[in-house]
Amino acid sequence: MLTDRFLGYINEQKLFAPTDCVLLAVSGGVDSVVMTDLFGAIHQPFAIAHVNFGLRGDESDADAVFVQNIADRYGVPFHLTRFDTATVAAERGISIQMAARELRYNWFTALLREHGYAWVATAHHQNDVFETLLLNLTRGTGLAGLHGILPRSGPVVRPLLFATRNDLAVYAQQTGLVHREDSSNAEDKYARNRIRHQVVPVLTDLNPGLLTDTLPRTVERLRAAEVLVQTELARSWHALVTKQNDAIFIPADALLTLPEPGFRLAEWLRPYGFGPEPVAQMLNALSRQSGQAFLSATHRITHERAGLLLEPLPVAADYELVLTEWPDTPIDVAGQFQLTVSCFDKPDDFRPPADAALACLDADRLTFPIIIRPWRQGDRFRPLGLSGTKLVSDLLNDLKISRSEREQTAVLLSGGDIAWVVGRRIGHRFRVTGETNRVCWLMKAD
Asked: pLDDT for 301-332, tens place per residue?
């Protein structure tokens, strides 16, 4: 029975303890409804969380009511939130799917902290693993992308990966479980849906045992191969490099005698923020005169006579200034610089100045608390005039900002979004437009 397989998979993968209270992400579809029933069948403590993404009008609202009724039926805590996902995606310049994923998992993480749940469980299954593998192949991927979705990553567990979509549908039919149908799943405007509807049926027709036999064995081999590769990468890294205080030296001659030196170097340096292109440039530099330097957001690599020297960049002052209102006097930002703020009704003939030290923002789009802090690796925003988002590190590279200036660069955030990379570029959403009523004028002074 599916219940026995479910419990066996949980124990085999050591996903959670019998006393752990698990937060279930329940959409109301057949997969999450079956997962909820299986948790009840094995008497595992759980709560239910549902996200209304506001994308399907009354249908989304009906899903939320349906899932709340499920929670009431099982007598478990229920958590509900709603997001204007389309607006968030447009403002951040990302896809609706990416926005929904970020909003969803950020909220789940907050619920874990607030209520003390041990894990978040999602209802991903074998079909999802295969679809993800194919999707990653179309984008280009490594071993991690080929083995697809893991049973556990961080606080998220996926206890249905042993089952196919059909297994879950059969269980729902046999047990009389009622579920909701998401009408968007029938549309082919999303890449995953096109793969599900147009590609997977052709492949399963060629190999009827693809999802139940071939794929699980292949995924397991790929996961094993990744373990072997990562083990060899760690072994050869520790055997090759020498440490000099906070710096690491990679000898060129020893590196180039190893099989696949480019692959090794790329994998070794990825955690330090170096992508494939700079790594390829480093390899080419080894055959030329020394002295060339390569920078990531956190590290510098210098081509020395005998190899590559990896060093962390000096850490800028760490601070976080929280403003609940605009003060009347200049703001001292951790001794780094000062900000003068002036808010006023926008004149009819107002034109924002073209001075990088000034930021003219739509005052009504700014929400308190305002946070000012140093920029961090991974910070992303939509710069003025761009249709998509950009990493702050890429912006600073494009502007050819020196290392010392990068270390002093701050960001001003409103509602969690970057409104201004201070002294560099404002966020597109916060720009002054013809619809702006009030202007917030910020001036930086060192």
From this structure: 988 888 999 998 866 567 889 888 888 788 88
Query: Is 199 a known ligand-binding residue?
Result: no
For 20-74, the pLDDT digits (tens) are 999 999 999 999 999 999 999 999 999 999 999 888 778 888 999 999 999 999 9
Name the pairing type of β-strands 247-251 and 293-295: unpaired
Residue 31 assigned ligand-binding role:
yes
Residue 30, marked binder: yes
Q: At residue 91, what is the residue type? A: E
- Provide the 3-class DSSP secondary structure of residue 380: strand
Angle at 156 between CA 150 and CA 158, to 5 degrees: 50
Helix, coil or strand: residue 112: helix
Q: How confident is the model at residue 193 (pLDDT cuts 50, 70, 90)?
A: confident
Q: CA quadruple 280, 283, 284, 285: dihedral positive or negative?
A: positive
Residue pLDDT, tens place only, 90-137: 887 888 888 888 899 999 999 999 999 999 999 999 888 888 888 878
CA torsion 344-345-351-357 (nearest 10°) is: 20
54 known ligand binder: no
> For residues 259 and 298, what is the distance between their CA atoms, to the nearest angstrom?
28
Report the C-alpha gap between 163 and 61 in whole angstroms. 29
Give the model confidence (pLDDT) of 220-279 as tens digits.
888 888 889 989 999 999 999 999 878 899 999 999 999 999 999 999 998 898 888 899
Rounded-to-integer distance, Cα 389 and Cα 403, Å: 23
Q: How far apart are CA 296 and CA 273, in angstroms?
A: 5
Domains defined for the chain, CATH in brackets: 2-220 (3.40.50.620), 242-312 (no CATH), 321-445 (3.50.40.10)
Handedness of CA 54, 59, 65, 71 (dihedral sign): negative
Place of tokens 């907050």: 110
The answer to whether 371 touches 363, Cβ cutoff 8 Å, is no
Alpha carbon separation from 299 to 94, 270, 275 (Å, rounded): 28, 11, 12
The answer to whether the beta carbons of residues 112 and 86 sit under 8 Å apart is no
pTM: 0.60
